[in-house]
Write a structure and sequence with these properties.
binds coenzyme A, Aminopeptidase, 4 strands, single chain, four-stranded mixed sheet, 134 residues, alpha+beta, elongated, 3 helices
């Protein structure tokens, strides 16, 4: 989230409220520079999508996604992307119902960095270049 604090215009949060202002759900949507299988730049990305259990299957999630897509379109995105755990069947079904095609499955790797890690290997020393915004 730190990168979004630096560029708050890249992240929007939509909330759904009941008649008594009860929070029913939320959607965090971001603008990413790219996403797997999507053309153009930026790409709208569903970062967090949640509806309270008592109000699921009644259209709240769909309305949140529609709001997020409209926001992303308004910021130049022509594609949306998202992700879910393979085991999250409800999320996968809901994504499919609101028009999201399952595109590719990824394996995530991780490595804890030590404090004195010097690059290993032969050849040139990589140099850092400034990143571009979306
Ligand atoms: C995913 C989630 C946000 C969907 O919210 P929701 O309010 O139930 O969604 P909606 O009622 O608007 O449903 C949207 C579509 O998905 C379908 N759908 C939703 N949940 C479904 C389920 N468990 N199984 C099958 N279809 C489902 C709905 O039928 C609807 O399609 P339709 O309009 O063609 O009938 C909600 O289930 C949730 O908060 N889950 C827990 C958190 C989570 O897993 N978030 C996603 C992280 S990747």
């Amino acid at each position: 989230m730190a990168e979004y604090e630096a560029e708050p215009e890249r992240l929007a949060v939509f909330v759904a409220e009941g008649p008594d202002a009860q929070l029913l759900g939320f959607l965090e949507v971001s603008l990413r520079p790219s996403a797997n299988g999507c053309d153009g730049r930026p790409v709208g990305y569903l970062e967090g999508w949640f509806v309270i259990p008592s109000h699921r299957r009644s259209g709240v999630g769909r309305a949140l996604v529609a709001a997020g897509e409209a926001w992303a379109r308004g910021h130049g995105a022509t594609w949306m992307a998202s992700d879910a755990y393979r085991t999250n069947r409800a999320s996968r079904a809901a994504h499919a119902h609101v028009g999201y095609e399952e595109w590719v499955e990824l394996v995530h790797f991780r490595k804890r960095l030590g404090s004195s890690g010097r690059p290993r290997g032969r050849g040139t020393s990589p140099r850092r270049r400034a990143a571009r915004s979306p």
